[in-house]
Amino acid sequence: MSHPEGGPAEEPARRRNPLADLTPLRASPAFARLWAGQAISGIGSQMTIVAVGLDIYRLTESTLAVSGVALFALLPMIVAGLWGGMLADFFDRRRVALIAAVVAWLSTATLAVLAWTSADSVPALYALATLNAVAATVIQTTRAAIYPRILPRELLPAAAALNGITIGIMVTVGPALAGVLVATVGFGWTYTIDVVLFVSAFVGILGLPRILPEGDVRRPGLDSLRQGFSFLRHAPNIRASFLIDIGAMTFGQPRVLFPAIGVLVLGGGAITVGLLTAAFAVGAFLASVFSGRLGGVRWQGRAIARAVQSYGVFVALFGLVVLIASFAGTPPSDQLSDANVPALVLAALAMTGAGASDEVSAIFRSTMLQTAVPDHMRGRLQGVFTVVVAGGPRIGDLYVGALSVFVALWFPPLFGGVVIVVIAALIARFVRSFRAYDSLNPVP
């Protein structure tokens, strides 16, 4: 069944329990099935992403060749985000998600067949990984447009937090399992296990009702795309949420510095890189787990601005730790025994705080997009958001890499964190409707 949208505005309920609100799972069996399917299949998807990288490295012994997976998939993912949004705004969203899931499943099954027959090659791995990423992008875009149709408005923040928990489990368990499975049973079994786990995604999608877009629907094409961008031009709150996110991702992505910091500043090499990367994911996961009170936040524009400013502060603190550690004179080393442990702990805590702040911002940005945008526009606006998410971090990687070469390793995060705080403050100051955004009266 399709859940009616809107309804009388009521003050968001205040929960005393800080743990994640599980009400969406009880209120909507369709959401519960979709959520569980995403959680289980997502572990397999993350396994395949890591396994493809390991497979390409096995064939080429080139890190550059491994990075080519993301490079080749970037433009198709952007196109898929925009096109998938148009499809979701015209066709039955259940059918769009189902067809995309079939494509994703077939691409993984083909990877398994190639691995079992020893017929895998770098071009084939690139092509299949790109196809899988395109299908996953369409699924993600369509799924986000489905949630407001199967859940009441007041439960969307809780649903976003539950999805954050899912992502945390996926990116933690999936890569770890991939490493163990590839090392013990090989690529064939690793891909095959993903093929089996992906069945859960079909269960979740097939359990959905038929969901046709409501309102002024447009056939996919340039006219539909123009209508979507025209809507965005006249939607200051949604546009502000996109801009504030682009600012955070452009100036607050220190991940490309981790390898150099792990050798030249903090020590510890690959272990330090892993700890700093995991710390960000742990922060995001903890924010989702302890998100119970977020559903009662009414002024969500202010909440986004404050969460992004908090993110900037933690990124700047990370840069400050690196700056101070640079004067400690830790000799270059990739051994954990030679690491500057106090500085490493502080850097990891800063990344944990950044991950938690980013997740809080993501919960409210997702809720704003799903509640303020009319149903017939949700797919396209989610598609634009996918482009922002795909492109922003890569622009950030370029910014960080360039400044680290011309200035110092500590400068990009320290300077970038301050810039993020300023950008968020300026947007909150000059976009008054964003600062006054009321979840009881969601206006795009």
TrEMBL record:
All copies of domain Major facilitator superfamily (MFS) profile, residue ranges: 193-444
Major location (coarse): membrane
Gene3D superfamilies according to UniProt: MFS general substrate transporter like domains (1.20.1250.20)
Keywords, sorted A to Z: Cell membrane, Membrane, Transmembrane, Transmembrane helix, Transport
InterPro entries to which the protein is assigned, alphabetical: MFS_dom, MFS_trans_sf, TM_effector
UniProt cross-references to Pfam families, sorted A to Z: MFS_3 (PF05977)
Transmembrane annotation, as ranges: 64-84, 96-118, 124-146, 158-183, 189-211, 257-290, 311-329, 414-431
Keyword DNA repair: no
Subcellular location: Cell inner membrane
SUPFAM superfamilies noted in UniProt: MFS general substrate transporter (SSF103473)
Transferase as UniProt keyword: no
Membrane topology label: Multi-pass membrane protein
Protein name: MFS transporter
